């Protein structure tokens, strides 16, 4: 009874410290409470004379912007470069702004997506034809070269087709680059870990680089069939259609404003023979949308391969389908996550029970093993033989507690991938949780603090409490003081790891911890469960 009272005393003290800590920290760390500078609006104008000044690239300007839009995306295209300065995903609301998610935004400080180098350089824009879902830019370039860039937005998918058509009065070799990624919005924290530039080859092998790690131009040669970038939830990829070779990838870093840089990723066309008085056409498709199989597969260009292949990806897709099914049943993603956790735990229950029974049997043998270690401390070979005889006599498998956990690891890895990348959890509410893709923030502080951020996250604290209770069940008097200390430290370590995790993921593992606690509690009430 005394130990339980001490446990609850520790929990109460912990909660009091976390609540009082911000008030003390405000005086100790005043720099964290400095008022933020007011946000400034970006002004766009169709008149080049009114374009923003102070640009890093003063040679770039736009004369007029055009909008291509369907139910899924809105694309802003600028003249004269036929480049995309902004892409908005209309069906995915950003929880922080409550507006459509902005996938890229160059703020008109530099050429955008689908801008080219080497194709329309020193060319004159002659005409722009605008239709309901298409834009046609026509350029003339000496000597006697007519270039057409045709952008067509598919009305049913997240794909934008680019057709490059060249007509020439003379033979020449066309070499140019097309930008696939520019103007990525800055990301911080956990999201920054998932932001990658990528180039895919014909055999579906990926070359990847963290966006923050790109420092200079790097050309990636080979049979390249895709270049782009992806973050925690979304992908942007440029794919050549019916490529006949001569395609390479590249990435680079370019100044976007006076104080920030942005990654550039793209495809290059080399050694393309343009024959006089014959049409030369290259087609590309730009995908801009969520990194899920269903959306990417609609292009029928194997863009979904950038998600990876193998068992984990396939099983993750199955779990995502199960999560969607549970959402249709409960109409709440928080409840769907809890139900998914319970279903997985019920499925793994035989392995979980076997693991716990094996660990209990090992604990029952601990006094005998300690005695053998004392008796044969100077004879390791004899000690090992006696321990193996002890296992054999009591029919205990020393690895019995580990093998079931190994079989569960693929499930846990797949679940982590599902819940960390599920765009459906962005902005999804559950109880006090306003966003299942972010920490639960039971109490929000008036500023950001060292170690704990800007909120008191309750789910990890409850997880610590449940883990403490479970450790109390499994900690026996046969354990030495060091073993007991290590056992009691594990819940704290677990809480630290999960403290700033997305609440959807924390909710899953909290449900898992509660389930495991009740299984352990029921097992410990069975005196004969470990009988040899």
Could you please describe the fold and organization of this structure?
This protein has 532 residues and is α+β, with helices and mostly antiparallel strands. It folds into two domains: 63-307, Beta-galactosidase, Chain A, domain 5 (Distorted Sandwich); 318-438 and 502-530, no CATH class. Helix content is 35%, strand content 29%. It is built from ten helices and 20 strands. The chain has helices at residues 2-28, 293-297, 311-330, 333-347, 349-375, 380-394, 403-421, 458-474, 481-498, 503-524, and strands at 64-69, 73-79, 83-94, 99-105, 116-117, 124-130, 134-141, 145-153, 159-168, 172-181, 196-201, 206-210, 218-220, 224-230, 234-241, 247-257, 260-274, 280-290, 443-449, 453-456. A nine-stranded antiparallel beta sheet has the order 6-7-8-9-18-15-14-11-12, with no helix packed on it. A hairpin with a 3-residue loop joins strand 7 (134-141) and strand 8. Helix 3 packs across helix 4, helix 5 (349-375) crosses helix 6 (380-394) and helix 5 packs across helix 10 (503-524). It is elongated. The two termini are 31 Å apart. Residues 1-15 and 17-58 have low confidence and may be disordered.
């Amino acid at each position: 009874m005394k130990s339980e009272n001490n446990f609850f005393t520790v929990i109460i003290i912990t909660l009091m410290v976390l609540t009082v800590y911000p008030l003390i920290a405000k005086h100790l760390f005043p720099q964290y409470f400095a008022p933020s500078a007011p946000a400034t609006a970006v002004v766009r104008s169709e008149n080049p004379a009114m374009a923003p000044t102070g640009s890093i690239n003063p040679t770039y300007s736009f004369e007029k912007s055009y909008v291509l839009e369907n139910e899924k995306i809105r694309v802003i295209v600028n003249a004269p470069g036929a480049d995309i300065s902004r892409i908005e995903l209309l069906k995915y609301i950003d929880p922080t702004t409550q507006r459509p998610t902005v996938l890229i935004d160059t703020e008109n400080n530099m050429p955008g997506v689908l801008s080219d180098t080497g194709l329309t350089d020193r060319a004159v824009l002659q005409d722009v034809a605008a239709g309901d879902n298409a834009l046609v830019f026509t350029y003339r370039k000496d000597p006697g070269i007519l270039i057409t860039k045709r952008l067509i937005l598919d009305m049913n998918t997240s794909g934008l087709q680019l057709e490059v058509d060249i007509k020439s009065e003379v033979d020449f070799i066309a070499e140019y680059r097309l930008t696939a990624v520019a103007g990525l919005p800055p990301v911080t924290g956990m999201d920054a870990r998932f932001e990658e530039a990528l180039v895919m080859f014909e055999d579906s092998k990926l070359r990847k680089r963290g966006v923050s790690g790109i420092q200079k131009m790097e050309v990636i040669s080979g049979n390249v069939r895709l270049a782009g970038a992806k973050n925690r939830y979304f992908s942007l990829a440029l794919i050549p259609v019916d490529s006949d070779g001569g395609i390479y990838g590249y990435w680079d870093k370019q100044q976007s404003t006076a104080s920030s840089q942005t990654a550039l990723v793209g495809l290059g066309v080399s050694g393309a023979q343009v024959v006089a008085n014959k049409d030369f056409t290259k087609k590309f498709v730009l995908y801009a949308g969520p990194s899920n199989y269903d959306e990417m597969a609609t292009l029928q260009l194997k863009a979904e391969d950038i998600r990876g292949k193998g068992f984990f990806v396939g099983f993750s897709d199955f779990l995502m389908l199960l999560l969607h099914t549970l959402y249709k049943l409960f109409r709440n993603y928080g409840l769907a996550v809890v139900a998914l956790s319970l279903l997985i735990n019920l499925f793994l229950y035989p392995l979980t029970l076997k693991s716990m029974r094996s660990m209990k049997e090992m604990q029952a043998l601990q006094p005998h093993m300690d005695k053998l270690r004392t008796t044969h401390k100077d004879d390791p070979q004899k000690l090992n033989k006696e321990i193996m005889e002890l296992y054999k006599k009591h029919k205990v498998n020393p690895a019995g507690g580990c093998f079931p956990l190994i079989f569960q690891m693929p499930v846990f890895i797949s679940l982590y991938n599902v819940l960390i990348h599920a765009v459906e959890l962005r902005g999804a509410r559950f109880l006090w949780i306003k966003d299942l893709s972010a920490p639960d923030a039971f109490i929000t502080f008036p500023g950001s603090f060292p170690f704990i951020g800007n909120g008191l996250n309750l789910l990890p604290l409850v997880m610590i409490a449940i883990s403490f209770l479970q450790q109390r069940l499994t900690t026996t008097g046969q354990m030495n003081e060091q073993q007991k200390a290590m056992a009691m430290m594990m819940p704290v370590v677990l809480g630290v790891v999960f403290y700033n995790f997305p609440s959807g993921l924390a909710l899953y593992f909290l449900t898992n911890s509660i389930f495991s606690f009740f299984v352990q509690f029921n097992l410990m009430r069975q005196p004969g469960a470990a009988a040899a």
